[in-house]
Design goal:
CATH architecture of one domain: 3-Layer(aba) Sandwich
CATH class of one domain: Alpha Beta
Helix content: 40-55%
Number of strands: 6
Shape: globular
CATH topology of one domain: Rossmann fold
Radius of gyration: 17 Å
Number of helices: 9
Oligomer: single chain
Strand content: 5-15%
Length: about 220
């Protein structure tokens, strides 16, 4: 525990962004990190999107409205991150602004993408960069199990095919990501929500100094969900 306290006291990381496919545990990890680090925690407000449930029910007709609402909402929220915070040393978010493109390229038609790219092209340079991005990489089976377990009404129509396509899109995106230091976590067989040892090991890995541009974290094989 003393080593962990020393890492927290001496780390130069201030802004940590958690990413992953729906059901990966982004929000849970962000909240736990926020509690330990006494951080300001900023969560994506997906429930405010009035088109999201309609998109899951009818993606062809509601993809564009859903995407543009998320784009504008995320941009506004990211702009607020740039305001000085005198009360917190750390900032934790459960998404990065760039993730918006993953969903856009997966869900939008070609003509819709042209308009989307015009909008986001005027926004990207105004977004703060994290000191570290943590990508929770998981299997489709684990993601679907997590989605089913948390039982959110808005997610009841998410198909396994959509999660598989989204998982592939996330992997493609992050294996080429270079905008910030990246920690890729094999999250399929880790339970940082209910097992404190899993969480503490992951926290140590997140705060460990002298990180390369891209790093992989594979928990020991004896850990299970």
């Amino acid at each position: 525990m003393q080593d962990l306290k020393s890492l927290i006291e001496n780390t130069n990381i201030r802004y940590i962004a958690i990413e992953g496919v729906i059901g990966a545990g982004k929000t849970s990890l962000a909240q736990k990190l926020g509690g330990v680090l006494d951080a300001k925690v900023v969560l994506e407000r997906f429930e405010e999107n009035p088109f999201l449930q309609k998109f899951y029910e009818d993606p062809i007709h509601y993809a564009f409205q859903t995407q543009i609402f998320f784009l504008l909402s995320r941009f506004k929220q990211q702009q607020e991150l740039m305001q000085a915070d005198l009360f917190h040393r750390f900032l934790i978010t459960d998404y990065i602004f760039e993730k918006d493109k993953i969903f856009a390229y997966l869900n939008l038609a070609d003509d819709e993408l042209k308009l989307y790219e015009m909008l986001i092209g005027n926004m990207e340079h105004k977004i703060p960069s994290p000191d570290l991005v943590v990508y929770l990489q998981s299997s489709v089976e684990r993601l679907m199990a997590n989605i089913k377990k948390r039982n959110r009404p808005i997610e009841k129509n998410i198909s396994e095919e959509y999660i598989r396509d989204l998982n592939e899109a996330y992997n493609y995106f992050f294996f080429r990501y270079k905008d910030a230091p990246l920690l890729i976590v094999n999250a399929t067989k880790i339970d940082f929500v209910n097992k404190e040892k899993d969480f503490e090991d992951l926290l140590i890995e997140i705060l460990r100094p002298d990180k390369p541009p891209v790093e992989y974290y594979n928990p020991p094989d004896n850990k299970s969900i």
